[in-house]
Amino acid sequence: MEIGGQPILWHILKIYSHHGINDFIIFLGYQGHLIKEHFANFLLHNSTLTIDLGASHIDILEHHTEPWRITLVDTGENAGTGGRLGRVSRLLAEEKTFCSTYGDGVGNVDIRALIRHHESHGKAAKVTAVTPPGRFRTLRLAGEQVTEFTETPYGDNGLINGGYFVLNCCTLDLIEGDDTGWEDRPIAALVQQGQLAAYRHTGFWYPMDTLRDRTYLEHLWTSGAAPWRVWC
């Protein structure tokens, strides 16, 4: 799914890249080949190049692309969110700490501050806590008179999982198999052990779960008012 002509995945990587993170592992499932093709052609589409058909050679003369190193891993169409993490544990073996997120939410999360906060408390995992956007327009009444009609209200100030994690590698030991959902047994175990801390993000955060969500995010982007566009 695209926002402003770019896949939402591109927007998420741009957020991390703005904060100095440029080495990514992407877990592929349904239609993962499309993501492979997108990044395989990314350099080609953003470069000035010479193609020597006779010599079967391509020279990149100039490129306008990103400083990203991307590892694309097929993790199956049916694996759980935790199972996907478990499948790439070997690629994270030399890392003490890593960031993890889903592919469907954008925000102006300060990733550097999130990592510093994680490193300061000594817990195994950090989750970004956000206030969810409201799903319905809000009416305020004085008797029968409408005094306020709020277009995009936020929720009731309850906090939810915003999907931007910082994790120590020991958390991967909590994943039992491919069908493990990260939000189920691993998170429950971290909570029980007192090893899950929260980073409160009070800025913009929005998921793209429905067509309505995509339309809203597209409107923010095209109007030049996209709060997650921290790289500009």
Number of domains: 1
Classified in CATH, the superfamily is Spore Coat Polysaccharide Biosynthesis Protein SpsA, Chain A
Number of strands: 14
**Main structural class:** alpha+beta
* Biggest beta sheet summary: 4 strands, mixed
Which CATH first-tier class would you pick? Alpha Beta
Oligomeric category: single chain
Radius of gyration: 20 Å
Write the CATH fold name. Answer: Spore Coat Polysaccharide Biosynthesis Protein SpsA, Chain A
- Poorly predicted ranges: none
* Widest beta sheet: strand line-up: 7-12-9-13
Helix content: 25-40%
Q: Which shape, going by the Cα principal axes?
A: globular
- What is the CATH architecture assignment? Alpha-Beta Complex
Average pLDDT score: 89
Question: Helical element count?
Answer: 7
Report how far apart the termini are.
Answer: 22 Å
Q: Summarize the helix and strand pattern as letters.
A: EEHEHHEEEHEEHEEEEHEEH
